[in-house]
């Protein structure tokens, strides 16, 4: 993906990070390949039983809103 998309993904992740940090977690960008963003939830989020819902219903939704070129967000 182009640098502009990467920059917008990073900006969106900063917004997401604020919410995760309130719960003791964080998020790390691992890679962007084609239209898939690979991220890692860290801190309290890495072991939270709700992490899959957080990923799908919040992280992926927000990233797709901010960066429409993104088709999928994959946790690693």
Brief summary of the model shown:
The chain is of the alpha+beta class and 76 residues long. It has helices spanning 3-22, 51-66; strands spanning 25-33, 36-43, 72-75.
What topology does this entry show?
Elements lengths: L2 H20 L2 E9 L2 E8 L7 H16 L5 E4 L1
Parallel strand pairs: 2-3
Antiparallel strand pairs: 1-2
Would you mind describing this structure in some detail?
The protein has 76 residues and is α+β, with helices and mostly antiparallel strands. The chain has one domain: GMP Synthetase, Chain A, domain 3. It is 47% helix and 28% strand. The chain contains two helices and three strands; from the N terminus they run αββαβ. Strands 1-2-3 form a three-stranded mixed β-sheet, with helices on one face. Helix 2 links the parallel strand 2 (36-43) and strand 3. Helix 1 crosses helix 2. The longest helix is centred in the first third of the chain and has 20 residues, at 3-22. It is globular, with a radius of gyration of 11 Å. The two termini are 19 Å apart.
């Amino acid at each position: 993906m182009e640098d502009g998309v990467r920059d917008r993904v990073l900006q969106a992740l900063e917004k997401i990070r604020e919410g995760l940090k309130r719960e003791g977690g964080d998020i790390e960008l691992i890679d962007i390949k084609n239209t898939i963003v690979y991220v890692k939830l860290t801190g309290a989020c890495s072991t939270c039983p709700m992490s899959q819902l957080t990923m799908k219903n919040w992280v992926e939704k927000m990233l797709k809103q901010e960066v429409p070129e993104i088709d999928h967000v994959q946790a690693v």
